[in-house]
Structures are given as C-alpha cells and as structure tokens.
Amino acid sequence: MDLQNKTVVLTGATGGIGQAVAQLLEQRGANLVLVARHQQALETLRESLKRPESHAVCAADVTDGEQRENLLHFLRYGLDDHGIDVVINNAGTNQFSLLSQRSPSSVEHEIALNLNAPILLTQGMLSWINRPGIILNIGSTLGAIGYPGYSTYCAAKSGVQRFSEALDRELDGSGIRVLFLAPRTTDTRLNNDAVQEMNRALGNHSDSVDVVAKHVVKVIEDEIASLWIGWPEKLFVRINQLVPNVVSKSIRKQQATIHQFISNRKKHV
To answer: Can you cite an annotated GO cellular component (predicted)?
Structure first.
C-alpha cells in the first residue's frame, strides 16, 4: 500500500516505538490519528511532527470498554470523509516477573491490553474501514518462544499472532489485510534497568525504535503477512516450532541468570 495521503490510526502512539512509527509514517505522507491514554502527551507528540495540522489525536484507554467505544465512534464519525485506511495496534505492556509473584489484576491488564484490545478494536472497525485497508498487529518474538519471566506476555502475543493469521485468512478477498510484525527486544521504557542488564549479561540482542519503525512501514507498504525482526531470533522461532527441546535446553542454561535478575527487580519494586 502506498501511504501517501492515507489515514493511519496508531495506538500506543506516545511510547518509544509509537513515536518513531509516527515520525516515519508522516515522512511517507500519511495523515495520522494518534491514540494513547494521556491527552497532553498526544498533543506534545503531534506538535513535534512536521505537519501537526494534518494529524488528529484521541485520548483513550483501549482496555476500557466505554473509552474504546468512544474511540471507535470518533474514528468513524469524528474525522473527515476520507475514512480510515490503516490501523496499527501497537499499544502494549509487559512485566518481567514470575507468575507466582504477579497480582491477578496485573495479569488481567496485561492480557487485556496486549490481546483483547487489538481483537475488539479490529472487530469494531471491520464493517467500515476503507477497502483496500490494512490492520497491522504488533506482536513479539516472545509470542513464539516461551520465556521465563514473561509467561502471560508470551501467551498474549502468541494469541495476537494466531488472531492475525486467522483473520487475514477469514477476510481473504474482502479487500482488508490483517498483518503481523514481531519485534525482538527493543530499547524502550518497557524494558527496565533489570531487563536491560539481564539482556547484556546473556548476550541477548535488542533493536532501536527506529529499526522497528522501518519494519512497520515495510510490512504495510509491501503487505507482508507476517515478519519477524532480528537474527538469530528468527532462527530460534523456527527451531522452537520444529524441535522445542533444543530451545528449552538453551534457556535452561540461562535459568540462574534470569532468576537472579527477577529477584533483583523484585527488591527494587
């Protein structure tokens, strides 16, 4: 899809990845609808762009049913006559912790934001999004490789992948594509000091938000059904599908280090 003059909805717009994606989409000529929880942060982001008058903002917590419905109403009726061409479900969260140490409410929120919200936002737009149209769901490498300390995040992002795959097939021939992008560890505020130190200790690779943003644009422009970012993570994804015991043995060697950093994180929370 050519993004010139297309209207793109971006959730999680004020996060690290979201801001980088917004800047790159604007460079491609897109008109943006920036969505996040806090109005002032959205206004600051819009004013930082080169064409702020071309973009709209809408403050909404996409895990809240009423706010989500208000957002859908705004997207359908509150903009000009061009309608919505692309939706990027980017809002997400994770918590590096053992499941036994999590509160039920934190688990529910993580699944609500990472999995339920993209599904329900997509459902709410299917009858009126422009055709041709694109829905891009942002997943994670951890959706394909179960990793200690991220059990519910892995579960949610795995669900996002299968949801995207199934709905893309369900909508085949309708003019709507449902695409999926899985970044590996990215340098954002979601990964606190303990996580960054652990990744350095284990030799885990990470990407800048600009790298992820470039892949977001590539997936949309080339209409790639699914794309995994990073080497050797892409290889591990395939190995985990075919011979998961190999990956389990590799992670088992990291187990002591992982638990050390989980314990350090708990002490400082």
So the answer is: membrane
With 0-12 / 13-18 / 19 or more C-beta atoms within 10 angstroms meaning exposed / middle / buried, residue 60 is: buried
Separation between Cα atoms, residue 181 and residue 211, nearest integer Å: 12
Domains, the chain, ordered by start: 7-268 (3.40.50.720)
11-27 residue pLDDT tens: 999 999 999 999 999 99
Identity at 260, one-letter amino acid code = Q
**Cβ atoms of 257 and 202 closer than 8 Å:** yes
Q: In the beta sheet, which residues pair with residue 88?
A: 10, 136
Residues 78-98 have pLDDT tens digits of: 987 789 999 999 999 999 999
Residue 212, sorted as left (phi over 0), alpha (psi -120 to 50) or beta, turns out to be: alpha
- 19/25 Cα distance (integer angstroms): 10
Phi, psi of 82 (to 5 degrees): -75, -25
DSSP 4-29: TT-EEEEESTTSHHHHHHHHHHHHTT
pTM of the shown model: 0.92
Do β-strands 226-228 and 176-182 pair in parallel, antiparallel, or remain unpaired?
A: parallel
**Which residue, 217, 5, 192, is CA-closest to 90?**
217
CA angle (147, 115, 265) in 5-degree steps = 40
Residues annotated catalytic, as ranges: 153
